[in-house]
Amino acid sequence: MITLGIDMGSNTVKAVALKDGRDILAARVEKTGHDLDAITQQVVDTVLSEAGIARAAVAHVIATGYGRVSCTLADADVSEITCHARGAHFQIPEARTVIDIGGQDSKVITLADNGRALDFVMNDKCAAGTGRFLEVMSQALGVPLNEFADFSRRSSEAIQISNTCTVFAESEVIGLIARKQSREDIIAGLHASIARRVFALSNRLRVENAVALTGGVAKNGGVKDAIEKVSGRALLVPPRPQVNGALGAALIAFDRASK
Ligand SMILES: Nc1ncnc2c1ncn2[C@@H]1O[C@H](COP(=O)(O)OP(=O)(O)OP(=O)(O)O)[C@@H](O)[C@H]1O
Ligand SMILES: [Mg+2]
To answer: Smallest Cα–Cα separation from 108: which of 121, 93, 90?
Structure first.
């Protein structure tokens, strides 16, 4: 049986085609852009064509992410927390906590032994502690996001970024560049800043090991290192961190269609 999960995030749209609730046939991530419906259609078409499947052969489609309620391609929608919990439990069965850092929010979810979400906390009020913060800084520094991890790993001493607010922190970074501070040390400082925010958020819950790190920001190993340093816990990044929610949606679609 083929099922499809779609995650319509603020930054990217993700889709996963799944066979028999077990095998990932295809997965895709695209920037959200201005026309969410058109991008979603494109991502779904690409995934189906890569998997070699016609839409009519898909048993059930579940949408998640902030755009899920307006998704016309799905049979139903499910909350992000439920989908992320399901995806993380599938990818890392021993995970009891999930930290998801996306483009516009960060969330921490605690999981039961069976992978069900027990509790969660979310920061969706402020760009600090999210991927958006890093995107702004990437622009200001002229360093692509996929190089941030390498830059921070070359740092000799992280520069403390004193402003939490993204707008003020951006001005602070521009000032540091003007004073010829190294980009490596600035980026290490930015990662430490995100890590402190996420760690403070996680402290509102009973965090237990193993801890999985998901979302697009999990692809930035510098953020992983910084959270490990501030929390004193090892983080596990699953093989497919960014499509974790879409994978969870496809798994829930399988559960429902199997009933
Ligand atoms: N190759 C990469 N290297 C470093 N960072 C990356 C990379 N790809 C994506 N990111 C980060 O991931 C973020 C997007 O994450 P993701 O796709 O999980 O967001 P989203 O699900 O659309 O957002 P949300 O869940 O908040 O609605 C970007 O803001 C960026 O910081
Ligand atoms: Mg997301």
So the answer is: 121
36 and 147 together in one domain: no
Please give the pLDDT value at position 134: 97
Token pair of 138, please?
């990437």
Report pLDDT for 70: 87
Domain span at residue 114?
Answer: 95-237
Identify the residue whose C-alpha is closest to ligand 1 atom 29: 131
Distance of alpha carbon 120 from the chain centroid: 15
What is this structure's pTM?
0.97
Residues forming beta bridges with residue 156, ordered by sequence position: none
Summarize pLDDT for 39-96 with one digit per residue, the tens: 999 999 999 999 999 999 999 999 999 999 989 999 999 999 999 999 999 999 999 9
Query: Both 199 and 250 in a single domain?
Result: no
Pocket of ligand 1 (CB under 6 A): 9-12, 65-66, 102-105, 131-132, 134-135, 145-146, 148, 215-217, 219-220, 242
Please tell me the total count of domains within the chain.
Answer: 2
Around ion ligand 2, which residues have CB less than 5 A away? 9, 102
Q: Output the domain CATH number for residue 145.
A: 3.30.420.40
